[in-house]
Structure formats: structure tokens, C-alpha cells
UniProtKB/TrEMBL annotation:
Residues 2-59 form the HTH lysR-type domain. It holds the Pfam family HTH_1. This is LysR family transcriptional regulator. GO terms for molecular function: DNA binding; DNA-binding transcription factor activity.
Length: 293
């Protein structure tokens, strides 16, 4: 309906007090200014300037148009400045495994906000397999996920491993110390979702060479796992950092024999280098720094 050039001509008429003064200031012919504004009024179906014997003044619709156009011009100027001066801005679609939301994520985002205040983040918390697929489909820009589930062709930077433990609510279950695998299998177990690598690793650990099957429940929510273990639904396989972040649960780590030791979770920060090289590098740097604290 109108362009920036139309708005600039209207602004010049307002600023200099009339068509003739605007012509002298801008170097455009007065007839060209009058013709452009008249065509704009016809296209929009409004009166922009009210004319009288003393000159012209903005109509109510013209004032509204100018006010709104000032916002558009400011946005245009901001975008040009960011692009030409290398300012990092816009929306970053960030996928995060839930374990990371309680560990490095807050420090990472605080660092990024201080370095790149024009960035905005849309954060999705999901399982690593889902985030890996989202990276391939370009519905995420950067993701922190389990290293083993990163897609091929993705830029990958390992993060410090997250140690795992067996946890119990002492008021509901009593186990030998140290507990053997058979002691753990005798109780219901709450772990990661069944589609994930940590869930499969727990099953392999508990069922290898044993007749008694393990009852392993899966949940994509670590908060749910904590609540279920606290309420005595079962024992849980939980990252140490998560339990430390929720001291109100009063869970106790189960001392186990070496045979029942859980493998640490190996996370990595990932992005497609062809689509998101600049923001991927910035987020990776902040994540590595946050992981080192």
C-alpha cells in the first residue's frame, strides 16, 4: 500500500511546513510531491493532508499514518544497523535436554544475554532423539542433547559428563549397603523414557544374564521421576546434579556394588554449520564456559 519513500515525502512536507518548502529541501519537484501524495491517498482511500488557503496540515488519518510509520522507520534503521555492524539479533530456537535446564542452561543464557542483548530465545525441552530429528528438519537452530543421538553432519562439541546414581526415599525402601543388581531388580525402577539410550542402558545393566526381569518405568520429566521416587513409587536412576538442585526431595543415594554402576550421560551442543554457523559458535562458546563453572 505504501513504501518508505512515500513516508519520507510525507515527513518532509510536515517537517518543512508545506509542499513548496519540502520541494526546496529535498530537491524534488513540487508537482512530483503533490502527485505522489495524491496517488497514495487514492490507493489507501484516505485523506492524508487537509488543504486550506494557508497551506496543508495532517488529517487525523494522516497523523495516525505518520505515527505508525515512525515505528516502521525505526525498525528499518535498527535492522540495517545490526546487519551492517555485525550485531547478532533475532530469535534462536534452542532445544535442551531436561538435565541441562538445571545445570548449564541458566549460566549459558545469562552469558549470551550480556554478550548479545538483541537475541531472543525460544526454548524447547525434549528428548535427545526428538531434538536430533528437529535439527535435521531445521525446526531447531541449536540443541543440547545426548552425544550418541546427534545426527550426522552436525557440528558437535562435547560437554562435561553428568554422573548418574541410584536414589531412594529411605522412608519407603531399605536396601543392603552396598546393594547388588538383584537387590535393585527386586524393586520398581523409574528411569528415562523407554525410547532413550539411558533407558536401554539401564535395562541392559539389570537384565544381562538374569532370569528375573526388571520393572523399569519411563518418564520424560525428571521432575516426575523425583516426585515418584520421593513418594515411594520406586527407586530411580537420576543425575546427581538434578538431585542436588532439588534438595527438598530428601532422596538418598543408594550405595551399590561396582556391577550396578551407571554410566554418565554424555551431552553435546550441536548445530548445523551450513545454516547456523554464527549463532551456533556463540551458543557453544557460552555453553562450554557454563559447563566449566
Amino acid at each position: 500500500m505504501f513504501g518508505f519513500k512515500d513516508i519520507e515525502i510525507i515527513r518532509s512536507v510536515v517537517r518543512y511546513g508545506g509542499f513548496r518548502a519540502a520541494s526546496d529541501a529535498t530537491g524534488l519537484a513540487q508537482s512530483a510531491i503533490s502527485r505522489r501524495i495524491r496517488h497514495l491517498e487514492d490507493r489507501m482511500g484516505i485523506t492524508i493532508f487537509e488543504r486550506d488557503g494557508r497551506g496543508v496540515r495532517l488529517s487525523a488519518a494522516g497523523r495516525r499514518l505518520c505515527d505508525e510509520a515512525e515505528v516502521l522507520i525505526a525498525q528499518r534503521d535498527r535492522i540495517l544497523e545490526e546487519l551492517t555492524q555485525g550485531v547478532m539479533a533475532g530469535v534462536v530456537r534452542l532445544g535442551v535436554a531436561e538435565t541441562m535446564t538445571h545445570t548449564i542452561l541458566p549460566r549459558m543464557l545469562t552469558t549470551l544475554r550480556s554478550r548479545h542483548p538483541m537475541l531472543r530465545f525460544e526454548i524447547s525441552v525434549d528428548t535427545s532423539d526428538q531434538m536430533g530429528q528437529a535439527l535435521k528438519e531445521d525446526s531447531l537452530d541449536v540443541a543440547i542433547l545426548l552425544r550418541d543421538q546427534a545426527p550426522r553432519g552436525i557440528a558437535l562439541t562435547p560437554l562435561p559428563p553428568e554422573s548418574m546414581g541410584w536414589f531412594v526415599s529411605p522412608e519407603h525402601f531399605t536396601l543392603p549397603s552396598p546393594a547388588a543388581i538383584d537387590d535393585l531388580v527386586a524393586l520398581p525402577i523409574v528411569s528415562f523414557p523407554k525410547t532413550t539410550i539411558p533407558h536401554r542402558q539401564v535395562l541392559d545393566l539389570l537384565t544381562s544374564g538374569r532370569r528375573r526381569p526388571a520393572t523399569v518405568h519411563g518418564s520424560a520429566s525428571l521432575a516426575t521421576v523425583l516426585h515418584l521416587v520421593q513418594q515411594g513409587f520406586g527407586i530411580g536412576t537420576i543425575p546427581h546434579s538434578i538431585v542436588a538442585a532439588w534438595p527438598q526431595t530428601s532422596l538418598r543415594e543408594i550405595e551399590t556394588l561396582a556391577e550396578a554402576t551407571l554410566r554418565p550421560l554424555e551431552f553435546a551442543i550441536c548445530y548445523d554449520p551450513e545454516r547456523n554457523e554464527e549463532i551456533g559458535r556463540a551458543v557453544t562458546r557460552a555453553a562450554v564456559e557454563a559447563g566449566g563453572n
